[in-house]
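FORM 7B: Structural annotation worksheet

SECTION A. Query
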Amino acid sequence: MIHIVFSDADAKILQEVINLDETLAGEVVTITDDYSVGPIENIYVGEGRAARKNWWLAVLAAGDFSTKHLDDETNDYTTIAQVVGTLRRNEEEQLYIWAAQNSRDVCGYYWLLHFVKPFQGRVQILYLNNLPFINEKGNIFYPEYLHQIPAKEFLKAKKLAREITLSELEVDPDEWQKLMTDNKTIRLLEGGKKLAQHDETFFDTEIKKFVGNDFQKATKIVQQYQSKSKVACSEAYLIWRLKTLTANNIFEMQGEGKSLKEIEFKLLSKVEHEN
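SECTION B. Predicted structure
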């Protein structure tokens, strides 16, 4: 049994679940790239993969972020090649894809179908779409991410596993192909598995709400955005947009280096604009 998740945090909680339930015993594999952002045109061929890698390198260069997931030895294409190899060698092997109601998981699911389509009948999906769970305080909640679910609650989630149908393996890749052709930068989940695409400036208006007239730490801006905004955005993307808007004379930045603890941002005043 091979389990696929779409973040390290999800892999950690799923491993805890496996420790509680031996019937789920198997390898946990993480798809590390976030396919809800960045270019995806021709993503399965060298040119498209190179364009995406270069985009990520530019985004991550804005802060002190790891580029490990872009390395040839550890990237998703190497990972999925190993999974496909296992499925080909062992016809009894089953693949379980775990996804929650968020853009990253759904985009990861779409990206993955290209590789698992030949194994129809051996690929299960556990899509925790708008399902209620009990949190640590005993209250009902609707998780957006797998890692928000307590490990013991996952024990009932496994009952939701179902085979990905032949129809889904035909229709869903077509939907992903449309998104690849449009090739915009931001993909947001509208409900179910429906995604809407937007330009790279999509978050800018929301970001501006958290930058004031006085300098404040980048870490504080990110924390405020992620705790108060209804539109989820990763830390790396936020920092990249903060620095891009600074280069476009919207914000002013002070501080040296890439450490988020050292840099600060504020709105550029009208006087500064005029000068």
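SECTION C. Observations
The radius of gyration is 20 Å. The longest strand covers residues 95-100.

SECTION D. Sign-off
Analyst initials: ____
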